[in-house]
Structure formats: structure tokens, C-alpha cells
Amino acid sequence: MTSLPYIGQQFTLYVGLYFLITGLTGSIMLIFIFISVFSYRRTPCTFYFIIATVHDCGQLIARLAPYVVSAYLNIDITRISASWCKLRFFFATSLGAIPLTCACLATIDQFLVTSQNVRFRQWSSIKIAYRVCSFFIIIWWLHGALWLYYQNISPITGTCVYLNSNFHVYAIIFVFSMLCFIHIIIMATFACLAYRNIHKTATLSRQNVDRQMTMMVCIQVFLIVIGLSPYGIDIAHIFATSNIQKSDDRKAKEAWAATITYILCFLAYG
């Protein structure tokens, strides 16, 4: 009978490689289309998409690519490189949070631009988009720097570990709440409101563009939900059962589930 670690390794190699290739291809095409059309460059929603897609590419290259390479070579890169041990979660938190925040901003922008309220529509401005996006990029990159300080290779086990137990708890709560569910709730809420606005309003300024962008936003929200929800649930389960004695069989099954949900979360970034 094929062991679960082997299944997880093969899943990481083939499905992860598929997500890597298609994700990078789609992201590069999206950036090219949005940059090449002037009207798209001046739209706040597409600006958020451009920033998110650039960081999506970084997420795929910095997080998924090494994971696929590790599965192919059957080695854990974080065990042999202290620098990568630190950088892995620095990239994971920074590059992971920025696209999700931009997706939230794009969803909110679609709610504003499709609103019947003139004051709401005025908040959909490219200047405001520049300022808000710059603010969150700086915040998330500075926040990610915490992982550079609190992670290193353990001299006892030789694995990449958190140096502070309290920060370990914070990291789990952060991934579960902020990266997985708070962003999803915000996106789902404003996507529904924007969809309702379109159906309530007969004529909208820039109606054709807004309908297309709203559909893109809704599709992005759907991919984020199905990609990140299982990963968040798995993180919550691991945290809730961290003090329970587990058999080797249960540990193997949980490690297999963690691998599957981790790879699937890249649906949200590809």
C-alpha cells in the first residue's frame, strides 16, 4: 500500500508544478493586458489587480517553487539553509497578505463605483488607490520582518522553528484569522453588495468596464474562498489539538492533510 508521505510528495510535485506554471503564465498575461491598455491603468480596481498580481508572481516563485523543488529532490531546504528558514515565512506573510488586501480593496472599489450614492463613487479614485495601496504594502512588508527575527534552525532538532513560543501562537492565529478568514469575509461581503448594486442600477458610469471588473472580482473571491478555507481549517485543527498526544498514524494523516491544503491554497494566488 502506498504510504501517505509518498502520496503527499507526488501531489506536491505534480499538482504544485501545474499550479506554478499556470499561475505564473496567467499572472504575467494579466499584468501585460492591464498595463498595455491605458483605460485600465487609470482604473483603481485594475491598479489593485496589478499590484496583487505582481505579488502573486512573487508568492509562486518564493513559496511554491522551492516547495516543488524540495518534493522533487526529496530534501527540506529549510534544514540546510538558515537564511531560507527565515525568508520562507517572511515571504509567506508579506507576499501572501498583500494580494489578499488588494483583492479586498478591489472588491470595495467595485462596491463604491457601482453605488447609486455619488459620495461613495467619488471615493473610487486612482489617487486614493495609490495612497491606500502604498500604505498597506509598507505595513505588510514591515510586519513580515518579524519572521526574520523569530525564526531560525534549531541546533537540537535541525529543523526550522520559532524561537519564541508566544510568537508561534501569534503566527498561527495570524494565518488563521487574517490571511484566511478576515480577508474572505470582507471580500465576500463587498462582492455581494457590488453584485446587488449592478442589478439594482439600470445605468452606471463606465458600465461595461465595471461589469467586467466585477465579474473578475467575483471569480477571484471564489478562488480565494475555495483555496484558503481548507488551509485555514487545517491550521485551526492543528492549533486546537496541539496539546493532545497523537499516534504516528494520526501524525502522518495530519501531515498529509497539511500538504494537500497548503498546495491548494495557491489557487488563491494563481
TrEMBL record:
Main location group: membrane
Keyword terms, alphabetized: Membrane, Transmembrane, Transmembrane helix
GO cellular component, one term: membrane
Protein's name in the database: G-protein coupled receptors family 1 profile domain-containing protein
Annotated compartments: Membrane
G-protein coupled receptors family 1 profile domain residues: 26-270
Gene3D superfamilies named among the record's database cross-references: Rhodopsin 7-helix transmembrane proteins
Residue stretches spanning the membrane: 12-35, 89-108, 128-150, 170-195, 216-240
